[in-house]
Prior knowledge:
The protein has 442 residues and is mainly beta. The protein is 8% helix and 33% strand. The chain is globular, with a radius of gyration of 21 Å.
Amino acid sequence: MLKHVLRVAALLVVIAIGVVVYLAWPDTAQVPFDRVTGKRPSITQPRIQTLPTVKVADVVGWQGNQTPVPAAGLSVKAFAKGLDHPRWLYRLPNGDVLVAETNSPPREGGGIQGWVMGLLMGKAGAGVPSANRITLLRDADGDGVAEQRHVFMTGLNSPTGMALLGGQLYVANTDSVVRVPYTEGTTRIAAKPELVVKLNGGGNHWARTLVAAPDGRTLFVGVGSASNIAENGLPAEKFRANILQVYPEQKTFRIYASGLRNPQGMAISPFNQQLWTVVNERDMLGSDLAPDYLTQVELGDQFGWPWFYWGGYPDTRVDPQRPELQQYSKRPDYALGPHVAALGLTFAGDVKLGERFAQGAFIGEHGSWNRKPVSGYKVVFVPFAARGFPVEGAKPVDVLSGFLDKDGKAQGRPVGVIGDRTGALLVADDVGNTIWRVTAAK
């Protein structure tokens, strides 16, 4: 009996050593980061992993009067501090700002996978329970700091996206879109939210974003996949890895675009009134693949997930393969680099930070957990040409960095980005529990 116990113990030690060795020497990037960005990124051979590279910045938070570092010609200060995991922002017509204080719902399942995921979330600053709250912030005196804070809505389920349409405020929970009547200037919603449509929840990619469509009658809702590459079967991905178009009056929806592993920030282009989104691409192909991206989205588009990435490169891990779909896999418009976790998106029409940032898109990159070295952890700007697409040959421009300290630890992590009523850029920082306000330096 003792001999059996010793053998099992030795086996566990070997496994533990193997895990430690793997985590100590993960896959390291071999291609310069900027070569995997832009309209024509370098797409190298995949380095398929059984276990993902794990490299996430430890969280330390902001110390004292520290702030992120703005680009030359810009300045930054806190618009609101002491929030509870603020992730998403929405500006109301009167200039009030709504912030979704939210996080992942409790995850189903345990075992080793659940334990590892819990460790990673805690290490990345995402281990706190969801406040399930929307808070209203008001800067009545116009000094760039919100002196009023009101609990606007509660009783939600990991809410993210918010949008006004037809006198109703729509909120995207992780498992539904709901609405309440809205009166301008109100600081609290007491009405019980009305269900508009149910959304499939569970699994990975819990955050649901939404934006009002230019038609004034419908909403676009981003719903990420439940898994990395449909490893739990396609039935588990029903109505996921999609952008849905919701018809609120009929309380129904259709698939507007598909094959988007995790579409997060969405915005309507001021150039042509078309929908754009940023998408988190797949994991475990190595530190150089696959790039997250920014792209225009039209009705019927299919971007390849899970079978293809970046417009037709096959993912040989997916079973069954669907080679006949390769020709229909749309290539995205712009690569943001591998594993940056692009989440927030807004166009410069609402943001006025000077000539350098006058025409293009601002993107909040939450930061990688599975790349060595880490990527993201910043807000970037993609310049657009007059015809409404990224400038040929342009690379992402840092707008707000310094979220990692000199030791590579996370002081904050940017998520949602919007323009305030004055043209400043507001950035939700869910690890730093702060909303930052970026302006052109005077």
